[in-house]
Amino acid sequence: MMETKKVPLSPPTLQEIAVALQSPLAANYAHATVDVVPCPDLRKAPFHLATRGLSGAEKISDVGGQPNLFPTPRLTCKWSLLDIARAMEMDPQRGGLLGAGAGPFHVVGRNCELVPNVSWKDGFDNVTNGSCLAQIKQGHPSVEKSPSLDCALMINLYGSLGDPGPVLRITAQGRVGGEKSITELMRKALAGAYGERMVSLGGVFVVKRGRAKYHIMPDFPPETELPFKSAKQLNDWLTYHDFEAPMVCLSVLHSADPGKQLELRMEHTHCASMDERDVGGHYHGDVKGEEVEYEGYFNVAKTLYRIEKPEVTLERDLHH
Q1: Which of 74, 157, 196, 226 has the fewest beta carbons closer than 10 A?
Q2: 218: helix, coil or strand?
Q3: 316 within some domain
Q4: How many C-beta neighbours within 10 Å does residue 177 have?
Q5: In this predicted model, what pLDDT tens digit does every residue of 51-80 receive, in sequence order?
Q6: Where is the DUF1907 domain (predicted)?
Q7: What total of structural domains would you count in the chain?
């Protein structure tokens, strides 16, 4: 049984959230729109989700956390996405999960970034696994379909029945402000609008044009180089890459963690090219603001699950 804390949320309406996001987005991009629209079929290009939509029993989870990586990787921390779905009290007959986390190193033989994208129908035995792994193989970035339903160390997930329904549609192009990450901008905008009231969003966006910066964790350092002694050492260990659009990005973000009691990861976005290119990783933001263009669809969670919260052994401000 996974250690789980359930937190009911009382989110604003999608229309209220759209209003809160509109001005900050308009200030940061030459062109930006935030609307509430019927969700398109997100299984189709360019999104390639495992579920049609983002509606029905909307939930978010934060599983594990950065203390499982820093200062020393805790390699016993690994879980099945289906066990997490059960801990999230998801409907076993149908549903889906998307988000960002660490991949099943114990299955693929190396550390990796996971782009979780799964759905199930008529029970957890009938799963569509559209998840991808971004990893460093022979010194070069590589993206491939995940052979497993496992994850490790830390993961942030948005779950729903996968139904069509109203969603936030966000478009932005031509950055003119200073915030390079659209998801961090959204998180800050909601924090500014709602203060300690927790607003948690999950969804998918596409980098349609321009280049963005991503990192990919390399394999774990040898024990002789552990533990990581500082956040800088950890961040220097990561590999950083600029990749050209298009890129499909799955994202979970929170406006607040009141009193930091849940020790939430406030924003987490992992991406993969859903074409023949071998690129993907953890999204940081655009490289050339004037060239960037986004289109995304998000929904708001009504319940949060803090699962397997790790013991903190060192307080650090990490950027992974």
Answers
A1: 196
A2: coil
A3: no
A4: 14
A5: 999 999 999 999 999 999 999 999 999 999
A6: 20-307
A7: 1
